[in-house]
Amino acid sequence: TSTSETSCCVSGTVAIVTSDGRMIVGTLKGFDQTINLILDESHERVFSSSQGVEQVVLGLYIVRGDNVAVIGEIDEDTDSSLDLGNIRAEPLNSIVH
Amino acid sequence: MCPLCGWDVLVSYLICGTLHSVDQYLNIKLTDISVTDPEKYPHMLSVKNCFIRGSVVRYVQLPADEVDTQLLQDAARKEALQQKQ
């Protein structure tokens, strides 16, 4: 059985989408088989349809694997060119099973 | 599952990308991703590759012409028979 796992992302900046529709950006320090994650220097990006993206500083976090939906590898160049203050979007919905 | 790697798939009608790998939990790794509606979902604009936890995936759409469904059915039947024994 092959493991796709997050072999690429460790020690890189990642964007986590949680099952309740939040987006957390941080440095992936570690993970395990159940996708429990350790995120350092993390912040939540709060999207709103009425104002720009709000970044809430969180710090060092452990996220339980049950709550992880997507782990995205952030391309630093693209991310730094984003104008977060001008992005308007509805918050994501929770995962419905 | 590896025969399907390299094909473009659409996950849960939201994320499209090239299937890089799959594991025993049906966790999916996609490269070169795009979102079906980037205006509604700008959340992943700076993400090119992603890992999707198998437990949250409802559907994976495969390119219909590229997949030999007969072959898949036969292989699945064989697998099910082996599991029973």
TrEMBL record, chain A:
Alphabetically ordered keywords of this record: Acetylation, mRNA processing, mRNA splicing, Nucleus, Ribonucleoprotein, RNA-binding, Spliceosome
A biological process from GO: mRNA splicing, via spliceosome
InterPro entries (UniProt xref): Lsm8, LSM_dom_sf, PTHR15588, Sm, Sm_dom_euk/arc
Cellular component terms (Gene Ontology): precatalytic spliceosome; U4/U6 x U5 tri-snRNP complex; U6 snRNP
PROSITE patterns, per the entry: SM (PS52002)
Occurrences of domain Sm (ranges): 1-77
Summary of subunit composition and partner proteins: Component of the precatalytic spliceosome (spliceosome B complex). Component of the U4/U6-U5 tri-snRNP complex, a building block of the precatalytic spliceosome (spliceosome B complex). The U4/U6-U5 tri-snRNP complex is composed of the U4, U6 and U5 snRNAs and at least PRPF3, PRPF4, PRPF6, PRPF8, PRPF31, SNRNP200, TXNL4A, SNRNP40, SNRPB, SNRPD1, SNRPD2, SNRPD3, SNRPE, SNRPF, SNRPG, DDX23, CD2BP2, PPIH, SNU13, EFTUD2, SART1 and USP39, plus LSM2, LSM3, LSM4, LSM5, LSM6, LSM7 and LSM8. LSm subunits form a heteromer with a doughnut shape.
UniProt function note: Plays role in pre-mRNA splicing as component of the U4/U6-U5 tri-snRNP complex that is involved in spliceosome assembly, and as component of the precatalytic spliceosome (spliceosome B complex). The heptameric LSM2-8 complex binds specifically to the 3'-terminal U-tract of U6 snRNA. Plays a role in pre-mRNA splicing as component of the U4/U6-U5 tri-snRNP complex that is involved in spliceosome assembly, and as component of the precatalytic spliceosome (spliceosome B complex). The heptameric LSM2-8 complex binds specifically to the 3'-terminal U-tract of U6 snRNA.
Protein name: U6 snRNA-associated Sm-like protein LSm8
UniProtKB/TrEMBL annotation, chain B:
GO BP: mRNA splicing, via spliceosome
Domain spans labelled Sm: 8-62
Record key words, sorted: mRNA processing, mRNA splicing, Nucleus, Ribonucleoprotein, RNA-binding, Spliceosome
CC terms in the record's Gene Ontology section: catalytic step 2 spliceosome; Lsm1-7-Pat1 complex; P-body; precatalytic spliceosome; U4/U6 x U5 tri-snRNP complex; U6 snRNP
Similarity comment text for this entry: Belongs to the snRNP Sm proteins family.
Purpose: Binds specifically to the 3'-terminal U-tract of U6 snRNA.
Protein name listed in UniProt: U6 snRNA-associated Sm-like protein LSm2
Taxonomic lineage from the root: Eukaryota, Metazoa, Chordata, Craniata, Vertebrata
